Amino acid sequence: MTQARTEQVGLLAVAQDRSLKVQTEQVPLQVKRSVPTNFFDALVGVVGFDNIIEGWRLEESSGPAIGVKDVADMTAGADVIARGQGTGVPARPKAAEVSGASPGDAFDAGNPSELDFDARNENFSIVFWAKMDGSTAAGLFGKQSVLGGAGYQACLRPDVNPDQMQWRVRDGTVVRTAIIVDNSVSDDQWHLWTFINDATNSEIRLHLDNGTPSTVTHSTLGDTSNTGNLLIGDDLTFVSMSGELNHVYFVSLALSQAQVNQLFAAG
Fold first, then answer.
1. Domains, the chain, ordered by start
2. Are residues 169 and 197 in contact, defined by beta-carbon separation less than 8 angstroms?
3. Which of 56, 218, 243, 253 is at a distance of 20 to 30 A from 97, taking alpha carbons?
4. Nearest 5°: phi and psi at 203?
5. pLDDT for 156-177, tens place per residue?
């Protein structure tokens, strides 16, 4: 029988015989280690590593962005998702800082089949932290062969009042869009965004932080798969976003409210 390793943990300091005595208890080491060291660890804990299709993150200190899996590689220094540089340990290191107004500023992930979803039949979620400060409409991410064609995309609309984030899936004819209307969309603060396609229930959902989602059904949607490249920082519709991204993940699950709450708490 293997005995679990333990350590002494202070419980309570009490005055005894004019001195301070600390009551302790033996607790398993793994209890302390259950607290995630970064958002990626938290995501693995919530969804499981096998359900993460692909993702990109910056190390928690500094340096280039890291691809979680080998689905879509990055070119350090060329793709904006890999340009982030940090000094020390900022509150949430940036994996991308997009400041240009050209669609060419986006990270082009190519056309990996794993990220080419048919929203009618595949559950998936796109999760990331973003800090956006733009004043003009901007694409956040998108995968479609041509503008207005089949695929999925998200765009920021700070040019309307109140500000909006729009998450949509389309088959080239039918379009379904979930919208969050909130001026904190582009308040230059870090927010967790969760874009969900729930094929099981024929709906898309959009969460800002741990809030109640905007939900739209898509029961009449056709095939959304396409041969276009996945762009992050643009969506073929507007100029590139202005702001920062980190911890960008594609997950093969339609995340629940409880799972979104867990991820937000871990961030």
1. 1-34 (no CATH), 37-266 (2.60.120.200)
2. yes
3. 253
4. -155, 160
5. 888 888 889 999 999 999 999 9
